[in-house]
Design a protein that fits this description.
heterodimer; A: alpha/beta; 59% helix; B: alpha+beta; 3 domains; five-stranded mixed β-sheet; five-stranded antiparallel β-sheet; globular
Chain lengths: 323, 272
């Protein structure tokens, strides 16, 4: 309080008292905090100190966020790895046909709801847009189904009319199969599709996330591909147990495949999100630390310069008095 | 008769089974938890369930999510206490990319033509362990992969025979079985290896038997038979039979019917 009022006084008295150096010297030591506009020789460290405080706070916050992301990653990584066996039988049976040529494509983009997770959402959106371009053509239509806020925000800007369905707040409750199954059911009911392409970031390691695309074909397309030979050619050699017709079984199979693949995809994406957030927050706190170091140097230099200036003034004033 | 999609049927079955299996799992977890750590888990006071105005399945799914979240959380806490830091480090680099990744070349080429600047996304083929090819003679053992959404119960286990509960009845699978796609109903899966027989009660799912004597069984819930509580099964059966008789809408009738089927299957599993 006292300092503040002195500061204010100092500014008012600054101009007329420049000539009397000792008084200026004393006053400058009292008002060393404030940056005076005209000629008072006090160098301020307040600005630098404010910046240092805010950068230190940022460092603390990002370090805490990194710890939180690390613990969440540990929890969800086991589940994602356990769910990896779920889609393999389907790929073993039906093969994988990303280059299948169909009329109605539906691109299911999986992204996160929260930000600060590096570039994974942008990658997913870029690949979705590229797939849209790839599968475009005469008499073909491609629609989006979006899971997660971040992809919605990016895709709504230029592809608003192509978005069929968008789902957010997926991770409010911990992910489990029932919830994803309900979601898959909703999507399948509301969207007409020949091929569903699920785009997500597969968790390869804590620092590497591979954008991946899984394809689920509708039963009609499966039959068509099986008849025409190729990868699905041996599907006819499989006997069907249960159900009345092959078509019914294929329908159930397609639905089941979609919900299993979606479950794995959602878990992997959540894992990637936490990993990306961890590394983003880690680099952010490291940057904050470096910035803090540089600011500390500047602060010390400024402080020492102001002390030196004071000393010079005092000494030169004293020597002038001595004569 | 109402048409229920496959996923919806599975969801209803899981919700019904969860109520039985949850109490079993809670008992097991508590036994193990008491042995390891003192943990204040009280699943009895469930959080208030969010009742939505949408379809029954959604509200039921929400309740099942809270139930399943609770035992998932229990299992997670348990897993965390067991999996200490060294194991986590070992898992930091996942090893499920095989040494020679197979890539779909047509897709990559068509991608590069349209979008030359970006790398094409990976496809599931890249991450798959290649399957053995069909041998000329019938192998002696059947390789079984039994997967659930939250674990791989058996992966590439060599056994003599499995009996799966297909919708058309119990189906035995031996090495050299003709390739089959079988839809499963809730029932007992028994795995025979030598003289050991392990029995699991499955919710529905699918079973694929390939020409190379590899059997993939995909189910949503599986519990070893000895952990099922007889009294709960009887109670559930009585409850659902009563619901079936008092059901009004098609959806309720279908749900009650599914409940009755599941519980009678459980009953026969315990007795048979």
């Amino acid at each position: 309080m006292a300092m503040a009022s002195l500061r204010r006084e100092g500014r008012r008295f600054a101009a007329p008292l420049i000539s009397s150096q000792p008084i200026t010297a004393i006053r400058s030591s009292l008002i060393a905090e404030e940056q005076a506009p005209l000629g008072i020789r006090s160098i301020s460290t307040q600005v630098v100190r404010n910046r240092m405080k805010s950068v230190k706070n940022i460092q603390k916050i990002t370090k805490a966020m990194k710890m939180v992301a690390a613990s969440k990653l540990r929890a969800i990584q086991t589940r994602a790895e356990n769910s990896r066996g779920l889609w393999q039988p389907f790929t073993a049976l039906l093969g994988d046909a990303p280059s299948v040529d169909v009329k109605k494509n539906v691109i299911v983009t999986i992204s996160s709801d929260k930000g600060l997770c590096g570039g994974i959402n942008s990658t997913s959106v870029k690949i979705s847009k590229a797939m849209h371009k790839l599968t475009a053509g005469p008499e073909k239509e491609t629609k989006y189904v979006i899971l997660g806020e971040k992809a919605k925000a990016q895709l709504i800007r230029d592809s608003k009319k192509d978005i069929e369905l968008s789902i957010t707040e997926l991770q409010k409750n911990p992910l489990n199969y029932t919830q994803v199954s309900v979601l898959a059911d909703d999507i399948l009911k509301n969207v007409e599709y020949d091929a569903l392409r699920i785009i997500f970031n597969k968790f390869h390691s804590v620092v590497s996330f591979l954008p991946t695309m899984s394809t689920v074909l509708s039963p009609e397309v499966v039959e068509r591909e099986a008849e025409s030979g190729g990868k699905l050619g041996d599907l006819d050699s499989y006997e069907i147990e249960g159900g009345e017709t092959k078509g019914e079984i294929l329908q159930n199979l397609a639905e089941f495949q979609f919900s299993c693949v979606l479950f794995n995809a959602v878990l992997e994406n959540a894992c990637s999100e936490q990993g990306a957030r961890m590394s983003a927050m880690d680099s952010s706190s490291r940057n904050a630390g470096e910035m803090l170091d540089r600011l500390t140097l500047t602060y010390n230099r400024t402080r020492q310069a102001s002390i030196t200036t004071e000393l010079i003034e005092i000494i030169s004033g004293a020597s002038a008095l001595e004569g | 008769m109402i048409y229920l999609s496959f996923n919806k049927i599975i969801i209803i079955i899981i919700i019904i089974l969860c109520k039985i299996f949850y109490s079993i799992r809670r008992r097991n977890r508590q036994k193990r938890v008491e042995n390891n750590i003192q943990h204040p888990l009280s699943p009895a006071d469930a959080p208030p369930l969010p009742i939505s105005e949408s379809a029954d399945a959604d509200a039921a799914a929400a309740s099942s999510t809270t139930i399943t979240t609770m035992f998932r959380q229990a299992s997670r806490l348990l897993a965390r206490s067991i999996n200490q830091q060294p194991k986590m480090m070992a898992r930091a680099f996942s090893t499920d990319v095989p040494a020679t990744p197979t890539v779909d070349s047509t897709f990559v080429e068509s991608w590069k033509k349209v979008i030359p600047n970006m790398e094409p996304p990976k496809t599931p083929l890249t991450f798959m362990q290649p399957r053995p090819s069909t041998p000329s003679t019938i192998p002696s053992k059947l390789t079984v992969n039994f997967v659930l959404p939250y674990a791989s119960e058996l992966s590439s286990k060599e056994v003599d025979m499995v009996i799966v509960p297909a919708t058309t009845g119990q189906m035995g699978v031996l090495p050299g079985h003709v390739p089959t796609i079988a839809e499963l109903k809730p029932g007992v899966l028994s795995v025979h290896e030598g003289n050991d027989v392990t029995k699991y009660f499955l919710s529905s799912g699918f079973a694929f038997i390939h020409a190379n004597s590899v059997a993939d069984i995909i189910a949503i819930e599986a519990v070893p038979i000895d952990q099922i509580d007889q009294s709960l099964v009887q109670k559930g059966l009585a409850e659902f039979t009563q619901k079936l008789s008092t059901a009004t809408t098609d959806l309720e009738k279908a749900e009650a019917q599914i409940g009755v089927d599941v519980h009678s299957a459980l009953n026969s599993a315990l007795t048979g």
